[in-house]
Amino acid sequence: MTADTASPPAPAFRRELPDPTSVRRTVLEMLYRSRASHLGSSMSLIEILIAIYGACDVDAIRARQPGRDRVFVSKGHGAAATYATMYHFGLISGDDIATYHLDGSLLAGHVSHVVPGVEHSTGALGHGLPVAVGTAIGLASAHFDDALVFCVLGDGEIQEGSVWEALLLASHHRLRRLIPVVDNNHISSITQTSKVIDMAPLGDRFRGFGFAVHEVDGHDVAAIGEAIEIIRHQDGPSVIIADTIKGKGVPFAEGQPVWHYRSLDDKSFTAAMEALSGGSL
Question: Fewer CB atoms inside 10 Å of the end CB: C or N, the chain?
Fold first, then answer.
């Protein structure tokens, strides 16, 4: 991990964490059952979401306590990963997970606030961070000083101007409990993010907006947790840039833009599950 501060404390996860492979299997089952897409986008998010929910008071989220930690997944097309992670933390039932993206289900293909435990509907990219910033300002004004506000962003999403307007406001107000986390998987929909708008060096752009930058392996839960703990104990705004692989854990989908849209058929589902079980393709 590289960071703008000294060596980190150990991550203070609030409970035993789910195994990332188990969460990935749940995502595959959800996508296969519903013939839904966004496999690649969901697989790059798993460790990020595990670390975030592991750092939160999940019981307070379940009870909708006013001073609860908030999790905004602005990258709303990562719904399967979000709901699978929430399921493994006990925030969504297995019965509901089984209905993902099927007719009549609350669990649609983009994150929705109609699902208990979800703070905000997302999918129109660039909208989640402004809401998260407003929430952080509101929590600070109500003296809920311990509440963390996470916002998961895609590296393609941060090309939206509304993201940088929100970052300016967060920096102005010195929102030390706001934690944007960038899923830096280097693919924006159908091509490499750098071919759409090259944001490199990404860390320097956030530094220019007044943020301390923590660059981590986005598939290392402990490293993400360590960055969260640094931010929990420091002043001023910070961002976590999590370097990830789109489609992580499914070899034929890793780094392949087509798996932003493609759905699993019988053959690809079997191959993906075998890969996660240590089998060969």
Answer: C
